[in-house]
Amino acid sequence: MNRVAAIARDLSQVYKGHLSLFAVIFAVSVISNSANAQYFNLGKGNTLEFYDVDYSQAPQQASVDALALIHHISLQADSDGAYLSLGGELREQMWGLDEKSYGLNGPPRVNDYVLQRALLDFYLHLNDHIAIFVQPARYDAFGEIGPKTTDESDGRLQQAFLELKGSVASAFATIRVGRQEIALGSTRFVWINDSSNVRTTHDGVRVKLDFGDTTSLDFAFTRPVTPTYGAFNDFNSHSGTFGEAYLTQTVIPHILNIDGYYYYRDNPAAQYLTYTGDERRDTVGGRLWGAVDDFKYDSDVAYQFGTFENREISAVGMSTRVLYTFEDEILKPGVQFQGSYFSGSDSSDGTIGTFSAPMPRPTSLNYIGLNTLENLIEAYPALLVQPAPDFTFRFGPESLWRASNYDAVYISRTTPLTKTISNTDQASYIGTNLIATLQWTPIEHIVVFGEFLHQLAGPAITQAGGRPAEAGELQVDLQL
Predict the structure, then answer these.
(1) Rounded to the nearest 5 degrees, what angle is found at the Cα of 234, between the Cα atoms of 233 and 239?
(2) Domain positions in the chain
(3) What class has domain 2-479?
(4) CA distance 112 to 120
(5) From CA 153, how far away is CA 167, in angstroms rounded?
(6) pLDDT over 70 at 108, yes or no
(7) How far is the C-alpha of 102 from the C-alpha of 203, rounded, in Å?
């Protein structure tokens, strides 16, 4: 409790002079659209982005939805002709960290700070087949020690693409050329990194083919953009290349869906064990997901091959989440279990056995992102309760082990803790995270999300000289 009080006190000092912004948030929240903090979602991934929502119908004069007036601004007398959609996002994210790197990656780090993200959406539809989407953004970090480029930027063109739509043979094609965000399937392995302030974006081309309501094909070839601090100066800042082919097939509507995918990632600054170098990694995998009454499931299995600095890659990753809810009971309780296995490297040969997703979503483990999807075994039972239709609470212990004792423990953004690679640290048990998570919609279309994590450190950490970690996060997110 003393630590929680200290975090609250420090955050109040960090945010002094910015409280008026919260007043603005709640003042305009009555006309905001749904936010994108779907941590409990077990479906195809996140909720629809602004550019995936159909705003083609002009609002009626009697409409009381103020946002409908800016979501469809007719540019011709014919309401079915050209129109402009305006929107945006404002997110305030508060963090309190204590030894997020277990004290093994630099000096002890205690930091309480606030991240602020502001986006504007401009979606111009010239007709039914051609559209242009532009999204400028600003990112600020208040009180963070050494803010990263994923947290702070004076200005950025987050997205800007030309969109072409139309029927091609038996498919409906959507082609996007330019800067864009890409999230695929469960988003475990290809994600937009929404927990950071600056989301991951790509420069390139993406093609999606929809064959009715049961089959879709998605292709992309891009250059992931490396964020920078300066305003609008990342146009030649890229980190290798990325390619994907993703198939989704509905076998039994709602009950059984099967995805198959191939990813290619060229990463010039990959890190494994004590090595850093150029990596060319291929991922082939599949996903099963669906729901039977009150039971939901979502599973990914993938195999990886390729080369890393003249070393062969052979790695396996898999993760499953299941959820059963008692919808007719008081508090609508739910029982959830998540189990994961992400292989690590062995010292017996030169093969890199460390699994590494091309665009990983570490928040599939926990939103704090304490650990990542490398060299990890996870067992995470949890209880969910819903005391109100707009409030969900989850609590559970997440136990973690190293898949290979010869490989490192990895933290934020695939960083190996090299101190855990030693003859004196051969333990596999990393520790158990006690996690409490809430999601609340106090007013329609605004989401408050929070998580607190306290780790009971295991010998894989303590034998390397590390200490337990503790972290809390609270965010208010709205989209216009």
Answers:
(1) 160
(2) 2-479
(3) mainly beta
(4) 27
(5) 39
(6) no
(7) 35
